[in-house]
Amino acid sequence: MATNISKVYLLTTPLEDDMKNTLYFSNSSAQHSYFESMIGKTYTNVSYQSDTRTFRCRDEVDTIRQYNYIMWQNPAFSNKWFYGFITKMVYVSNGYTDVYFDVDPLQTYMFDITINASFVEREHTNNDTVGLNTLDENVALGEFVFNGGAVDFGGTYNNKEAEESYICMGVTELIGPLKDNNPLTNNTPYYSGIFSGLKYMFFTNFDAVNKIINYYVANKTTDAIQTIFYVPKFYLDNSTVRTQAYEFEQDGQTSYILVSWVEPSMNPRYTSASFSRPSTVNGYSPRNAKLLTYPYNFFTITNNNGAEYEYRYEDFSGGPNFQVASSLSPSMCMKAVPTNHKSGNTNNSWGEGIMGGKTPQCSWVTDYYTNWLTQNAVNIGLEAGLGIAGAGASLATGNPVGAGMSLVSTVGNIIAEHRRASMVADQVHGNINSGDVSFSKNKLCFTYLPKSIKAEYARIIDDYFDMFGYQTNRVKVPNKNHRLNWWFTKTVNANITGNVPNDMMNKIKEAYNNGLTFWKNPSNFLNYGVSNGIV
Asked: In 3D, which of 315, 283, 289, 280 has the Cα closest to residue 301?
């Protein structure tokens, strides 16, 4: 059906009929002003074929080939402006060309529709606070890397002896000066609320420990020493520590040994460590804050003994903070627990802490033969005496063979015991298989390890977020006009209403469901290099 159109303009615009990108205007006046500024050819009272959407213009095809867009109005019916894509141009005859076009429903009906709450699959966020957008993006991450800045805390990680650790000896009884001058005021056998039958002494050097061991050996009470292990100083560095010097007489020599004590009823001692949030990803500064969250940026805490726990910066209020708790017992027991994690406190996050490695159970050597001899001296004399008395009784009864055998066997047994005792190597006590390797490497502690994807992958993902925003997966009214230059929206079964022909409405919905980018400034159309902050 042929009709006349009063006004037809040919334009050159950046818009394409795939409708993946379109221009945004705040009102119809701004829209009309822009398209009017792009007019290249003007026609009036042209013939329009509505069934084929063509009009015939009085121009050679080569003269108008550079135009890709059309706008028209027919005031005889309404004042509405229509916009469309030129799809092809066909030569008719000299001086005449048929121009084929399709309506651009997005521009033609931009101010006639309402975008209602819909399932928004992706869009550019209007709030890019770190930790607010954490939905999985299903993008390639590559391998994770360490970002430097590892921090050791809550244990022994510098000097194994006097600076950071005590050597603790647990004994079943105190002897000599240790017993006579014990400074403890509370002998309740509960350390950090845990019952213990041992009394603990603390030393800052190995020489003092060896002297105490030798003193126990000399006093025939070696078995009283049950354990020797290391204790990180932070656990005892409080007012419960009592340190004093003791004078020991041994082999004609006087030794002075410093011994520290703690009250058995001491409360658990804690230490804490805090870490700052990173602002880069493997050295790359992202434009999209989501890259500062998991799985692009995160950290782990390791106990350096085979256990490692993964944490997310966004789960902490402020910078991550950990409290290390410990209890005084052989090999110690330590646990690092987040204190400001997932809007909770230490008690709430106790199950998300990580246990520490055990401190080494030290070994110590005693002379088995000397110890056996001193411990059994009375028994040996008694046994020999009983053997001789038995022999005398046998002779008195007229049984010399029995007397000889009794005496010989008794003395022989004693000699045999001496022989066996003298052949037994010096005895090693304690356990040498705990956290020994880590301790020897100054790593018996917890270590904070910041990790992330590589900068290469971060840059790729950042560009992706620039173009298509974040995964949203919410029923909401799509964001609009919230960015400096552009924003992307992708819906599922978009809910759009308005006074629009059905075929045009279906195309508008299809554009939203396929994913659509709006551009505010025509001069920056498709330019992803310009700033696009939230407004």
From this structure: 315
